[in-house]
Structure formats: structure tokens, C-alpha cells
Amino acid sequence: MARIQVYRYDPDGEGEAHYDAWDLDVKPGQTVLDLLHVIHYYHDPTLSFRRSCQAALCGSCGMTLNGRSGLSCNTQAAPLIARDGYLLVDPMKNLPVLKDLVVDMEPFWNAVYAIDPYLRPGAEPHGPYVVPKKQMDPLKIAQDCIMCGSCLSECTSREANPEYLGPAALAKAYRFVADARDGAEQERLERYSEPNGIWDCDTCLYCNEVCPMHVKPMDAIMRMREKSIELGIPSQGATHALAFYETIVKGGKLNEFQTVNNSLGIGGMVSQSSIAAKVLLRGKRPSIRKKPIEGFEDVQKIMRAVERKKRREARR
Amino acid sequence: MQKHEVLIVGGGLAGAMAARSAHLAGADVAIVSKLSPLRSHTVAAAGGINAALAEGDSWEGHAFDTIKGSDYLADQDGVEVLCRAAPEVVVMMDHLGTPFSRDEAGHLFHRPFGGHGMPRAYFAGDRTGLSLLQTAWEQLVKEGITLYDEWAVTRLIVEQGRFSGLVAYKVSDGTIEEFQARACVVCTGPAGQMYHKTTNAVTCTGDGIAMAYRAGCGIKDMEFVQFHPTSLHGPNVLITEAARGEGGIMRNAKGERFMERYSPKTLDMAPRDIVSRAIETEAREGRAYPGGYVDLDLTHLGEAKIRERLPEVYQFSTEFAGVDPSKAPIPIEPAQHYMMGGIGTDNDAATSVPGIYAAGECACVSLHGGNRLGGNALLECIVFGLRAGRTASAFAKGKAPIAGGAEAVAAEEKRVDGLLKSEGRETVEDLRQELKRVMWEKVGIFRHEADLELAVGAVRDLQRRVANVRVGSTGKRFNYALLEAMELRNLLDLAEVIAIGALMRRESRGAHARTDYPTRDDAITQWQPKERTY
After folding, report:
1. Ramachandran region of residue A16, left (φ > 0), alpha (ψ -120 to 50) or beta?
2. Which of B319, B430, B479, B483 would best serve as a mutation to test chain A binding (most A beta carbons within 10 A)?
3. A169 to chain B: which residues are within 8 Å by CB?
4. What is the pTM of this model?
5. I want to staple B336 with a disulfide (CB 3.0 to 4.6 A). Which of B198, B262, B373, B485 is the partner?
6. Does residue B272 carry a catalytic annotation?
7. Closest-CA residue in chain B for A123?
8. In what order do the strands lie in the sheet with B2-3?
9. ipTM of this complex > 0.90?
10. Nearest CA-CA distance, residue A136 and chain B, Å
11. Residues near A8 by Cβ (< 8 Å), separated by ≥ 6?
């Protein structure tokens, strides 16, 4: 017997949101979805949750399981209970709850719609496109996305900024940017470089971690950042990244004054001054010395190695 | 009330394609679907889509294999339409963005599938259905096609001898509303949930077939139910045929390569019906593992090839069975997989009721006759989805809308109200489990008159008992218990048709195997070329 606690909420109901608990016999091989079905079919038919394929392909059953976003259909229950000593099922985070475990996916879809989620072909050949396997391979980090929402649920940038497009939409965006058959790379990257796009990711890596399909949204976002810098697409994010890079190349460590100056200009220096004052008051004095750090030669070696590697990759 | 010219019921691959072609033909079209389109069961189709694109292949060759595979029950004109259109359909999907797998030089890969004389299955890893559906969905977004998702259609309305609209139930708040239109295309997929072991999604409850049947459309070939030989033992998650196409070998509990007994020439690549019967026979004769499963061995392919070509197989066996297929064989067993039968249509997807069209797995052209070959289902969804959208929009043009859906809405409201208020003793799940057991045991891989008679009786008994069902949830929002009660009625209506069809067909053909009539009887088929149930 194991206790399973499930988040309950019904806007038409009388009570507040709460947890209901059931003590169930958990057999080896049973998934969390199997347990929810047992509850729904035999204990409480009013429990609502989306599900369909039961094979981790349709993306219906995204939930939060012991605090971590994922699919209930491919998450074995017994190991989770053995590891944590409990089983707690919540709806996905970062999306409004409509009832019990059902969330409003509208904001999720709207973000996907916003990236033009369809091929904008360049020159169409008569027969199938000829695109070597090597050129198709990069799509692999994004093409299997089943739009379950687990990554958005776990996204810390989205938590801070509800306007941020989020990992799933941006992974979808990358799927077209990386596709040799798509003819709108420049235009896409310009749009994705606008606020709430690729430069708003805070690189926490949770999206890569939780994706049930092993899609890597954060890698996709980083590749788009690199590509947009390569193409010289102006954006505050790119300017900031380059400013960062410059101070490191020069002195081996971050120079906050220079970075803010290069990234945001004089106006930025002024606007950031109150933060700077607070930082100073807390005793976190940034270094003003321009002298390179100890071991600077090694930093330069690393930078050169990275650049050589990039050139090699570009030639391939 | 919502008004459109053409309504597409269901947003899977066939529905999305029908919507696209109706839209491009200039019709005001909307999709009404129980699920958000990307949740549709198309995602589960793994292995490929057939087309005679390769040098040395021909549409005639593809058609021959399809007709032979159907055990000569397929409609040969329909098959011609399918196979002729196949090459351009694959090229079209490539142009629209499907990430088909390619070789180093950049040309589309293809691989062998059971029952095909040539390797002609094109694929995107082993997520071909998912990839094609994504592409189709992307086009819906691009064209801005209206979508009513999580609206479960409960009834098709026929007035003055033609389709006039439908009634749908909004899952999010319990609203029941009329949708008026001049034509509709039913694309609601299969009804596999009537079987105990099935690879079908829990939402595959035959809603569209049952509604069309009740609206007066002929449905046909329903007794032909495909059992896929390689589903994961236990959860019955589908292990694609491509696993054998790439070189997988099946062995029984004694380690014998048992297919040598049943199909010495084609071995593991024999058509699905033959392989399923072989496994079932091994189990009945005590050569399978306890529980009736056998091994599918991929270990000789090596981890790299499995991960590259069969990533989904790798994921499924590790996540759902705890087996690393590069190190140990995968435990597999047959499970219900596909329905060859469905709403009867002609080659333009028209049913016997003017204004109602059907495409995809819920339809029966019939392209697959007694048995479908792998790689032809996705193809059918696209070819006939596109055709259905075109013919439905042509039909809708110039037709005046017919009012008069209020009665149907009232009837549905009354039915839903009755279900919600019912104080009956039966539960949906008990009846559903009983149905699944009866269909699996009595109308399964092997069939027999005595069993089939019992099955018809048992299903009719369940139909009586369903009147006394208690839903147990009266809420308006996301009341899935109510939805399941409505789905159960659909399953029961179709189970009756399947059991009767199986009883009446006194021969063995394709997936329909009668132990009491073990051979094919072409005389029967001659006088019953298109058996229809009204």
C-alpha cells in the first residue's frame, strides 16, 4: 500500500484547492497514470486529468510528479515512491489550472503560434529535397517535441516573465532555423532576437532535464544565439554577450563597469547605478583594476581553442 | 450555434489533411475534435509511409502487394488511387517540412516492411506518424484554419436526406451546441478500446464510426481487425514493424526461431496476421513464456544502430519494460492494432449519406480488405484525407444550409442530463472491462462459431446493462466520466457489428481467422463483395 496525494481544484466547487489522498496497492510496472486511472475508475470519477496514447507520444498527460514536471504515462510509480517516500501529483506549473490536473494550454499554444511554426520554403526542387543526413541531424535535438508542456512548466525564466516564449516554442523555432529546406533563417532569427525570445533564457537547463522525449530546448536556444551573432543580428542580448566576451578576452575576468558600459551605454550606466550602489553598500566591490588576472595566458589558450573548434565545425 | 460550410470531425492526420484541402478549395472549414489535434492517435504510427518512389519500383507493384496482402478483399480501384498518389504525397510532405530520414548523400531513405516485394516505406526515424502529423498541424496553423478542440461530437444530424450539422459537447464547460454545415468529413480514427489488449489510445473509442452508423451511413468490413504481433508484453505499447525490418528476430521460450514453421520464406517479415497467429499458436501450444509472450531480439544490431534507426523502440523498451534492447530481447505479444473496416466510402470518400464523408482509419474504402500492410495507413490518411476535403467542399458549394438542429440538440441535452442524473448500479469501467474481455477472448486472433454466438449475446447483454449505468460525476468542467459513458455506448454499438460480421463470415481471410472455417472461400466474397451493415 502506498499513499498517493492528488491536487484537487474545481472552480464550481465550494472548497478551496486541496489535496485528496488515496492508499493504493502499487504493483511493479504501474505508471502514475495507471494509478490515476484506478482512482478515476474505482474511487472518484470526478477526478479530471488529460490522457490519451499511454505511450509518451501524444503529450496529453503532462503533470508535476513529486515536484518535477513530466508525463504520468511513462513515469513508473513504485521507484518514485521508493526514492521519495511519497507520491504527490500536481498540475503543471506556469499555466493556469482549470480543474484538478487539467491546465489551460492556451498560453502554451499561443507562444508556439507566435514563432511561425511551419516551413517557409526557399527554392522548392521538383522531387524531394536533397539534404545530406549531416545537415538534417541538428533537427534531432528539437523535432521529437510532443508539445506536452513539461519544459514550460519547469521554466524559471517563464516563471519570472510570463511573456517569455519559453523552451517548447523556441525549440520548435530552432527546428525551422536548422532546417536546410527553410528559407527564412535571417528573418526568423531577427524575430526570435526580440524581447521575450532567445535572449531571455536564463540557461537553468531544467527544460533539457525534464523533457520526456529527450529534446534539448536550451541547446536549441543556445545554437540560435550563436547563429544570430554569426549573422550579426543586433539585439540587446547579443550586445551583452559580446560585451561579456570582450572583457574576458582582455583581462580574463568580468569587468562589470565595462560590461554595462559596452552592453547598455551611458544611459545604461545611469539606469544601473542604483543597483551598483546597492551592490557597493553590500560590500561587493567590483574590481576596477585593468590588470589581467593571474593565469591569463591559460584563459587566452582556452579562448583560442574554442575559436579553432568553431572554425573547424564551420568548415564541415 | 456555430456555422461553417464544411466541418471536419477529428484533427489527426486525415482530418488535418481534409481541412487543408477543403480550405485550399475555398471552403469555410473548421475542425471539431475531442482532442487537441496533436494529441490524436496518428502520433503512434511509427514505421513509415509507403510509396513507389525508388528506381525499379512501380505503383503497380505497390498495388499488387497491397491487394495480395488484403487477401484479395481490397477494392482494387481504390488501391490504384492510393498507390498512384503515393509518390507525390511523400514529395509533398517533404516539401511541407516532414523531416524524413535521409542517407549521407541527402536522398530519402526507405526500408522494407512486411508483405512488400520492395523496400518502399519512407520514414522519419521511428516517429513517422508523429512527424507527419506535426507537419499537417503546422499547415493548419499557417492557413489559420478554425479549430474547436476538446469539443466531443456526439451526433451527426441528417435532415431532408442530407447532412445538415452536428451536435458537440464542450469538454471544458459542458456546453452542448449545434454546428451547422453543408458537409462534414468524419476522421475520428479507430475503436480499439473494445479489446483487452490493444495498442490504441484510451481515446480510440470509435465515436465517428458509431455516429455515422446511427446517422444511417453504411459501415463495412468491420470483422477485419488487425492484431499487431509485436506489442510490448504488459502495457501493449507498439514496437514498430521496422524493428523486424531492420533485422530483429523473434524466438519462443525454447529459443527457437519459430517463424521457420509458419512462413519459411519471409520469416519475421511475414504479414502481421500470419505473425500474430504464429505467436498465438506458440502460446497455445506451450512454447511461449508464461503470460503468452515471446522474444524479439535486436541485440545483434548493436546499440548505435538501434538508437539511430529505432530510437522509439529503445525508449519504449527501457521505460515501459525495463529492457535495454541492445543487451536483452524485448518481450512481445500480439495486441489489437488496426481496424480495416469502418464507414463505407467510395474513392472520393463519400458515404451512403449525402454530405457525410469519411477518411482515415474510421473509413473503409476498402483499401486494406482483410489485412492492412504496414506503411499504408499513414498514406491512406493523407491521400484520402485530401480527397475527402476536396469532394466535401465541392458538395458544400451552392447548397443552402438546413435549419432544424434544435431538436437534435434537445435530444442530446436530454441524454446527457439522463446520464448525469442516473442512479444506476452499473459502472462504466466494469462494463468496459467486460466488453474488452469478451472481445479479446471470443472475437480475437482465432474465432469460432460457438464463441462468436456467445460474444453477440454478451455484447447485447452489455448494451442492455449500459442503460443502468451510473456516471458518478455531475460536474460541468472536464467531466471525463461522462465522456467515458458516451464512449462506451459507441464501443458497444460497434462491438455488436464486429461480432455479427465475424459470425456471418464463414471463411478465414486476412486477419479474420475462423478455426471452424479455416480456408478462404472466394464464392462467399463474390456474392458479398462489399458486405454492408445498416
Report:
1. beta
2. B319
3. none
4. 0.94
5. B198
6. yes
7. B95
8. B2-3, B176-180, B162-170, B151-159
9. yes
10. 8
11. A17, A18, A19, A20, A47, A100
